[in-house]
Amino acid sequence: MFRKKALGYLNKKREELVRISKEIWDEPELAYDEYFASKIISEYLKSEGFEVELGYADIPTAIRASYGSGGPVVGLLGEYDALPRLSQKVGTSQVPIKEGGPGHGCGHNLLGVSKLAAAVAIKEGLQQEGLDGTIVFYGCPAEEVLTGKPLMARAGAFKELDMALAWHPSNHNMARYGSNTAVNSAKFHFKGITAHAAADPHNGRSALSAVELMNVGANYLREHVTNDVRIHYVITDGGGEAPNVVPESATVFYYVRAFTRKAVVDVYDRLVKIAKGAAMMTETELDIEFLGGCYNYLPNRTLVDLLDKVMRETDTPEWTEEEIEFAKELNSKTDNYEKVIQAGLAKEGQHLATEVLPQSDEPIYASTDVGDVSHIVPTGSFVTATQNIGAPGHSWQVVSCSGHSIGQKGMIYAAEVMVGVMDEILKDPTIIERAKEEFEDQMGGQEYICPIPDDLPIP
Ligand SMILES: [Zn+2]
Fold first, then answer.
1. CA of 410 to the centre of ligand 1 (A)
2. Residue 315 sits in the same domain as residue 381
3. pTM of the entire predicted model
4. Distance between Cα 104 and ligand 1 center (Å)
5. 146 Rama class: left (phi>0) / alpha (psi -120 to 50) / beta
6. What's the mean pLDDT in 425-451?
7. Over the stretch 29-50, which tens digit does the pLDDT of each residue have?
8. Is-cis flag, bond preceding 169, omega within 30?
9. Which residues crowd ion ligand 1, with CB under 5 Å?
10. Residue 321 buriedness (CB in 10 A; 0-12 / 13-18 / 19+)
11. How many domains, in total, are found in the chain?
């Protein structure tokens, strides 16, 4: 009866929840600036009887909200940050609302509200049935810069949980066993001595030369890393505008990724040596601004299997003619459509996903800070279709669908799946026991070490 009551409540609250997701879509906010989204979500949780802390872990836009008592203690990971320069109207042509403004190109307006929806529905089910159990909604800021959850973990978050659930918007429906890469990011600032490049070159020490030599070193490093390692950089400060002035300062911004945290730390340490070498060669000063890092995602087979089962027994959204036409029009405007078909994620002529695809073990080279949570407690992750099949990641098409009924339906379906998972866990406590055993095995006695040092300030 828990599931029926919780789903009934979700259905009753559906319009309100959809409206909140649209309000967050209308007000896209970048990492650590999610004041509107965190406020509206906190207020809703309060009105639903949750104990709410906005500003959790000293991060103004982080939330911890809980309801219930005793076990199982289940965490839902909400996110609500947008991406820069992706402002876009709901429509089938690329038209920004505000030129150069932010937009929900990863669908996090849906992500945050799906967890909110699941949280309030689960609360209602627990309350109506008088059941033991605690639901914890974590509002996690700044997923797009991959430091929100690690910073929350640094303050002790997630340890209280028996398990966590993560859902992300997508172009297909699937419980995901595939991992993601861990990452470290840092800015390397070099400071030299400026001089007239022609009249006085021997007195100059070029910061730009240091950046270039560091990049040369890093590019040779690629020959001696494992296949999963990704190293990428941009020069954010090239040190000047005039060739006749020796650049006094220059900055290069790096990401290092790999499928294990250990490999990231190893390669990052070698990169630091290269930076120091570049500074030594050019007689410049080096200042390393470590921006943070996160873990790879550690999938839990027990929870992923459970998600897969519940996804299959929950009806996927039925798409209207209008929605299919909308998606078809979008698919016609992207080369990505054919790639998705070739990858076997959809059939030719299909424009919106309907079925639940088989679980994939395929790792993804992108990173998510859900990885940190997955190294603290058993974590299950899944995706549902909230976009046209061909929508490229972080694109205007994702923004458009995330403000459309297509995205909203996929979001509610995701919330229904999370309610179903809670129901299964309440009925069979051995699921969590098995998930925990598996987690302990995978960790092999290793402790989670927060990738963000204690002294790194909150951005
Ligand atoms: Zn995302």
1. 15
2. yes
3. 0.93
4. 9
5. left
6. 97
7. 999 999 999 999 999 999 999 9
8. no
9. 106
10. exposed
11. 2
